[in-house]
Amino acid sequence: MKKIEQGERVELQAVHEMADKNGETLKPRIRLRISGKPKFRAGWHVSLLLYNKRIDGFGYDERFTDLDGVEQSGWHRHIWNEKTQDAEGKISVSLFDKGDPSFRDFLIWSLKEMNVSCPRDDDYANETLF
Amino acid sequence: MVEAHLTENLRASGRDLQGCTITLPIKTVDGRWVSVIVEEKFDYYLVHDGGQTDSELFSQGLKMSDADEHFNAAIASKYHLTLQDKMIQKACRRDDLSETIMAVAESSAVMTAQLVSSRLVEVEAQEVHSKVSEALRLWRPDDVEIEQNVEVTGGLSTHRVDFVAKSSASAHRTATIKILPPSRPRDRAERYGFMQLDMRQTPEFKDWASLAVVLGVETWTEPALQIVNRLADKTIELRSDQEGEVEARVPKAMTALARAELRL
After folding, report:
1. Do A52 and B58 touch (CB under 8 A)?
2. Is domain B116-259 in CATH 3.40.1350.10, yes or no?
3. Has the ipTM of the complex gone over 0.85?
4. How does pLDDT run across B81-117, given as a tens digit for each residue?
5. A56 FRET partner, CA 20 to 30 A, in A75, A79, A126, B143?
6. Burial per residue of A58-95, b for 16 or more beta-carbon CB atoms within 10 angstroms, e otherwise
7. Chain A: nearest CA to B185, how far in angstroms?
8. Would you kindly state where each structural domain of chain B is located, as residue ranges?
């Protein structure tokens, strides 16, 4: 958390065991990336990557068009699309509408929504998640 | 009509602790509207992107290696801006404010060109190709010639390998080196497998050894990796953050391939 709050980029890795369509066991490496400058929410990102592609994540845009084609502003979540095999589509989220969240609030909420468990100590950057 | 479009798509937020955020009628390669933050200081303005471009690139899988950062800094410099503390920025007077806002926005949009995956893959593969070339040059025994980008005509098709270490003495075995980038791993693995099987059925190449260098191994599925491991005599698997190790691992692998021959 100290690293993150100093504006450093952080990457945490974990091996995720899963089965593919043919029932074969796969053990892909999943990476969680956190980045942004605490002072400017426009750059805050939490992103889950599989095979170097974002599969889930949260961020902030002053202006974006959601999956229904409606123009939105503010916090959003990236939604995985089976057809296009990416998570570029966004939906607006209202999790953070209660006042101005800090970068820490944003991270805690995002990780919770993504079912990523947080280590109890205060130094996320040195811990393995999941 | 154009003027109306530009005006309609130019937005400005109210001032808050972060300054004023201006969203311009410019889109990035990944389809985002570009926003620029303007902070009013005593007698000048600080215009920047709040670190959003850097953060976007990182969150979408870009390594942000020294080479990536130098590339971004070079783009910023072309627009007479700096890339400092991960932010595209410039301090300016009121007279230059509009031009500076446009420059930050354009620079931000141009940097996202790196998200075009083919470029990422291409650049990575080229960097590794150069490193392997240098490693082979240093490793090369006297009786071995190194050839680059060699076409090999098998019984069924013509294939291209990155290098052939061609031996003129029986002490070493001629070997092919193929670099396998991380895009579409299953297709690459199957194509590699086809090449290996085709070469084995061709008398001229059937005794050649093979080294496969797999890049971005974290993006490969297990079945794709298995194909390569089964059909190459030796495989070097490198994660995206390990590509610097290739120079150390290639000579060891080549020596091991030569030793394997001596045992036969």
Report:
1. no
2. yes
3. yes
4. 999 999 999 999 999 999 999 999 999 999 998 887 6
5. A126
6. bbbbbbbeeeeeeebeebbbbbbeeeeeebbbbebbee
7. 10
8. 2-112, 116-259
